[in-house]
Design a protein that fits this description.
Layout: H1 21-37, H2 45-53, H3 55-69, H4 76-89, H5 93-103, H6 110-119, H7 123-135, E1 137-140, E2 143-146, H8 186-194, H9 197-204
Antiparallel strand pairs: 1-2
Helix pairs in contact: 1-2, 2-4, 3-4, 3-5, 6-7
């Protein structure tokens, strides 16, 4: 009797098409990741390509990030940016993410997850992931890569009462939006309505 093959067996061919089921699943995963990231136009092509090129690892990274931050509403767009920076800055990152994912348990708190990761020699990479999410920056050798400023998780606890620290008067990148309309005093509105081209030209003479 032939040994039953796994759905994820790399050597399993699907109906003689020449594609393994693993390849087909990867293709479906890539399409799903790509569709998810369509709503984030700020992503570079490289960031999108890295996530869609490794859909399983990217999904595992996203789930690990949710577990260690204890935030289920993390942005897939920001996740893709952080993932890209780690993926290209650390040759072992993909393997480490898979190992971290394998350590996850149902209803596991972040502190417990962190302790288990340390016991398995993955404490540093897990700390770097949570640091990236909370500070919005990634350490890459001697360089620090800015991923996001206003969306860094460290600002969430006070987001209902304070804007993200910035020199902009109404929050980060406020100057990129049209300025709010300046209210005009009523007496100025009345004088403006009364003015005629002749009176305007006379006043300029």
């Amino acid at each position: 009797m032939d040994k039953k093959r796994s759905l994820f067996d790399e050597n399993t061919q699907e109906n003689g098409t020449g594609f393994s089921r693993r390849d087909m699943l990867k293709g479906v995963g890539s399409a799903m990741v790509a569709a998810t990231l369509l709503g984030f136009p700020f992503l570079t092509q490289a960031e999108t390509d890295t996530a869609t090129g490794s859909p399983v690892i990217f999904t595992q990274f996203f789930i690990v990030s949710q577990a260690i931050t204890e935030h289920q509403d993390l942005s897939p767009g920001m996740s893709a940016r952080i993932f890209n920076a780690f993926y290209h800055g650390n040759p072992q990152f993909a393997t480490q993410v898979t190992k971290l994912y394998g350590l996850l348990q149902p209803n596991q708190r972040a502190k417990q997850f962190q302790e288990v990761a340390k016991q398995n020699g993955l404490g540093d990479v897990l700390t770097s992931i949570i640091t990236g999410w909370y500070t919005g920056t990634i350490k890459n050798g001697t360089d620090t890569i800015l991923i996001s400023y206003k969306d860094a998780l460290m600002y969430r606890p006070v987001s209902d009462g304070l804007i993200v620290p910035t020199y902009c008067g109404n929050g980060p990148l406020w100057f990129t939006a049209p300025p709010p309309a300046a209210p005009m005093p009523e007496y100025m509105k009345e004088e403006r309505l009364k003015a005629t081209p002749d009176t305007v030209n006379t006043s300029k003479a």
